[in-house]
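Q: Histone-lysine N-methyltransferase, please. Structure only.
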Amino acid sequence: MDRLHLSPFDEDEEDQCIQLLSFCRKHRPSSHERLPFDEQIGHKACEHEDYIPPENPSGCARSEPYDFLRRRGRNGPGVPAASSKRLYVENQPHLLGGCSPHMPLWNKMSSTEPGGSKYSVDLQKLQISQLNPSGKILSVADKYNYMRDTFRKRLAFGKSGIHGFGVFTKLPHKAGDMIIEYTGELIRPPVADRREHLIYNSLVGAGTYMFRIDDERVIDATRAGSIAHLINHSCEPNCYSRVISVSGEDHIIIFAKRDIKQWEELTYDYRFFSIDERLVCYCGFPRCRGVVNDIEAEERVAKLYVPRSELKDWQGE
Ligand SMILES: C[S@@+](CC[C@H](N)C(=O)[O-])C[C@H]1O[C@@H](n2cnc3c(N)ncnc32)[C@H](O)[C@@H]1O
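A: Structure for Histone-lysine N-methyltransferase:
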């Protein structure tokens, strides 16, 4: 209520209405310096009379791509700097596909690690829970929190044998383990389509990082999100994705489909759906279907459509 100001009105006037005036946080005077209403308006007008709004490069703020990081006041790479993201990735000294030059992680970490939450139990326990299904972590919410707190200790990204960069396990995982959450910006499919075709195809180049949850929601992990967006597709994957609900919120989780050894590359079946586009698959597994596309689903849908040329005009009876 203290942000709303009732403008005075003339009691004799018949057609009177009440105006509500609201100031944004930046321009709102603090409560002790709040002036009577009339003075406030005059004061604000004087304060901003020489204010010239910044010029928008495209001429229309609405046509600018949404800059997730800058909006939150951080200096992130943003879309035009996709190449710098690539450089950043390439310069990381990750060693993958071989033995780790580091000490086993469970020797290094303990529950007394600064910044640890109640789920940052020591890695000895992490080992037990990951390898022993009768471990103490029971509820989905507990598993979720545990997964979120430990994914950096369990996973790494690096050069993939399938395509570009991929995600690898630093530790063995058990079938059914929650591996990582696919996070990013939640957008609607039309926005995802526009971004994919008009922006990312030319800028990012290496493919897009969109995860379609359903017909109404897409997660765009191009500029925000965890390393889950680097997980490659395989026709014989060791993981699968599911949307789960934790405390009323939906999360896309990558689960282990089978036991996964240390340093294996994580993969799941993208079930890439496109009637007109074929994406050649490089997974190299014996049962590779040759394309990333979900052929069966596409065939099913294709059968539902009749080409326009085959439609006959209604002749009447
Ligand atoms: C989410 S990215 C995966 C990370 C990607 N490797 C990278 O370095 O950015 C998805 C893109 O990777 C490529 N990709 C992933 N798996 C593939 C596969 N099995 N065969 C061919 N290309 C694949 C496709 O270009 C796809 O659009």
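A: Brief note, in case it's useful. The helical segments are 37-47, 68-71, 82-90, 105-108, 123-131, 140-154, 189-203, 295-304.
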